[in-house]
């Protein structure tokens, strides 16, 4: 936990940027220079590209927020109830849009929301100054953003590109280990399986990191399109490996792993262990094609599973080769590829993301009620600093809205704000009266500012660093001359902490749900999409569906870990559900090449799958298994139909994912478990 040189560098940079913003604000005589200092701590990120991207969205969000305040306050100032409702609704609506966006752009919506509250509530006592207040606030915030961006970009910048390349390399290395385990038939312990699932969450983190790459100064900044293509293949690799493990296990039980297949699996494993070189991929693909056999009208279950295995091996080699080609292109940083991609046509377009409208609306209602509660206390007590409480209520209900249970984080923020109030009080009334120039002021502030920066470099202490850095500067309230008064300081500190506590209480009543509830919502959303995919007819985009399902998987993995091993959710095979989705999309495409009778049989199986996912979570029924087997038998009898092979293999995958313990079609029934 001892900070290294990178942590010290960031701490010195953020404190230097804060002091630079303070010095410029005092020089140009801005009314509240401490807003510029606090903005530096909100904006500054360890990576320079991330700082610049956040800076851009913060500037735009600030301008939208101050405009909203200028539009709302003057005409409604004589109707405080209506003004409170307007500001609360604006903040809640912006938060709702922010939670649905789930990209760095979401910060723009969130900031536009609570900036209007930050400016609007203090202005109710002097509405005639709202325009001047809005302009000065925009100037102070923009100054802080510019100082953070300049220091991050000019003083030993930490580019995003090398960090992203390192994360991609580590991900592919771990995926390579999993590939070796799958192809060699090694079973997985629960701890190893959990680590494999972490790949989905890490892919989502890599995607979030890549969004800052366009604002980077590294060579990799031109490789943004390649990163998006690579992420698609990284995500598709997970269901392919899961399917391969299932097919190998099934064939082992059927004694269907022929010597030829074993040699092929061993060679693919050796190719993967060697780093998936593209020069050998073509020869390996030719061997896979040679091992593929036509499926006769009386193909055995073992032959169908073997064909499915060959199909997945083909995908594994193509995706693995693409990953290495893209990794090489990203590493070179020129945005070009030296070799064509095998799956180029399947990974175009924008990747869909999971959106939880229900939780976004619930968070927006929590923010709305939190602001209303703070204003009610303000009016009922005639609190001189009640506007500060309303401001903090708006900010805190927005900042932690992405968490399942934001209350612990909000209460921690309140605790450290209280500690900051005590420490700042000692500094403000014991040391600051002795300060008479900017140099001595900088020397006095530097240790505390550096400490806040160090705390921000660790995920566990990041909220502490933010609480001290942002609220500490607000409490210090540095002006061009010393004007502090103890009673006003105590009242302002109580308002800060009080607003945070009110936000925590309202959030506890309206918004807190817990990790297990969040996991159940994600599982339910996936089941709805699986049912919809089974009900719909026509072609489907397999890559888009994989993006959506794996995006949910990335959100689900940490929640399953937080829910604990005793939760019934821990028994869900999340990758099996993903495989169901992939096969459903393949079947929807294959049905266009079948005869009407075969289409009717396949549609009956798809409708049974839809009914399974529309009902309560549980084992697949005998009726569903019989529908799948009937469709298999009917489509096997098809001759010279373009969709026959894809339909058969899709049904094999569906049967293995939903009923992994079921005996082969036509065999005596055995007990089986749900996917």
UniProtKB/TrEMBL annotation:
Subcellular location: Cell membrane
Keyword Acetylation applies: no
GO cellular component: plasma membrane
Keywords: Cell membrane, Membrane, Transmembrane, Transmembrane helix, Transport
Membrane-related topology note: Multi-pass membrane protein
Signal peptide: none
Gene Ontology molecular function: any one: transmembrane transporter activity
Keyword Cell membrane: yes
Transmembrane segments: 6-28, 55-76, 82-100, 107-125, 141-157, 360-380, 409-432, 438-457, 488-510
One Pfam family in the UniProt entry: FUSC
Protein name: p-hydroxybenzoic acid efflux pump subunit AaeB
Biological source species: Methylobacterium frigidaeris
Gene of this entry: aaeB_2
